[in-house]
Amino acid sequence: MLKAISECIKEGFELEDVKVVSRGKGDILNKYSDYKKIPVLNQYFLLIKGDISYKKQHLIKKSLEDILKSLQNSSHKVKKLSILEKELETILRANEIFFSGEGSLEDFFLFLKNKKYAVVENNKVILNTGIDKFSITTSLGKLKKVDEFSTSFGKGETYALKTGMYQIIVQSEKEPLDPFLKKVLKSRLLWLNKIYYEKYQYSVDELTGLFTRKKFLNDLPKFKNRSCLLINLKNFRFINEIYSPQVGDKVLQEFAILLKKKSLSENVYRIFGDKFAIVFNNEDQSINFYRNIVKFLQSGIKVFHEVLNEYVTVNVQVKFIIIKKIDSNFLERAMIAFKKTAYQEKDLIIYEDTILPQMEKELKSIEVIQKAIENDKVIPAFQKIVNLNTGSEYYEALMRIKSGRKVYLPGDFLTPAKETGLYPKLSNIMFDKVVEAIKNTGYKISINIEITDILRKNFIDYTIKKIKRSGVSPDKIILELTETEDMSRMIRYAQDILQTLKREGFYISIDDFGSGYSNFSYLTKLPVDIIKIDGSLIKNLEKSRKNLLIVKSIISMSKLLGIETVAEFVNSREIYQIVENLGVDYVQGFYIDKPKFKI
Description:
single chain, Alpha-Beta Plaits, 21 helices, 24 strands, 48% helix, disordered N terminus, Rev_trsase/Diguanyl_cyclase, EAL_sf, Nucleotide_cyclase, Diguanylate cyclase/phosphodiesterase, cyclic-guanylate-specific phosphodiesterase activity
């Protein structure tokens, strides 16, 4: 260019005789109507005043093109640096909000809301940084633009949808997107996708669409002093077993929709499995929601059964627990609430009114247990059991705790002892004292054990070694296995241990047979010598024909299997005569003998 200008000056041209004007500047071009217009790079005009040879025109135009290209390249580089700088600022700021805890997740996505673009080229979406394709298609095809905008990537139009405001850049065929900008947008797309995935996993439960336990824990500090309603689908395991896990999932989905719809709360969470939480402003709102939802649940939940190819109505049993005020101990209280109410029949329990007083009572019980262990106040009370055929007798050792003049029964302390890990110590103490009582009296004695005792790692070694060291014959001890729900679930793990104990010479008995968890298959799987018929069946024999028939069938079946029977809770002459006529082998109860601390 300088060379061309130099040549022009030699020919008598001045600098003002040469102009460079952009094509779009029509008003400026009009001022130089007497100048000769030479197109340059399809973007500019080279304006020359006066006559000039073709050679010199070409020389000036070529030099000008070189300079303009250099300037354009420099401009592109500056623009790229600017874009990279802005992208880096966006990513750093978003990461700062997301990871530093400075703001909430809502703040994070609000920040990114105006950072999303779609680029459309020849009616085809070529790049997208977070807008779903349906929204783009709908926007371009049916909606009117509500605004225009300009970004580093180009000019575009803003479209409004119910799901948000979307910015869409439509690239023309003549102005395709720069490859560098495509790379920048692709990088952002990968980053946004990862962040969206992390956020989705963090805050939204995939099955129900409710908020997750992680988000619940994150949100708890802002709910201080508000009320929380904990919800447990009590029979969900039953639903899975009877219908199928797929139907169970559908029940959870429909239940979640119902919770969201009826609570009108934005704070509905699935905290794990079949347990949910809803945060309300106060206790009254929690109670009102409970009353409303119970009405809807009475008709069950209707879901489609794929195998049956029809809709089925599933009955759901729900436990509601209200915690009046959320505080720093909320999580601990929530876990205790679910555990303490698992087998309670009431549908609505208020933590502060029911569970808290119960826990305070249990804390006192734990203190009593600890002192009893330290001061040797865990003692057996012995109750006589008499054989109706021979008159022979043995005793049952019943656990008691003495504290001053007060005597605590198992119902006062066993539950907190099990929950705090003190029960194995109590069990060992009782076994030691039973062995000592046998040595001193020569009587056969039964001692209550649970399936959890048998499954303890050192139980069998401790029991056998204790007996051998004491010199007491194992056939003087009856291990009385209490029938519980735990037993029904774990019995298969205990069969070998019980067989070993039986081979060593111990007698095996099942206590509370027929109490509700009873399974007659136990009698074929376990080496049972004696069954004790549950007291709830015995004590009302004179009033209940059903109880009479059940007891009669248990006695008949036991005789066929060669198993002896004990009727407990024989508290009157009338009951005594009934069980004697039914053919029971042993009787136990206040009519025979009351528990005492010495035999």
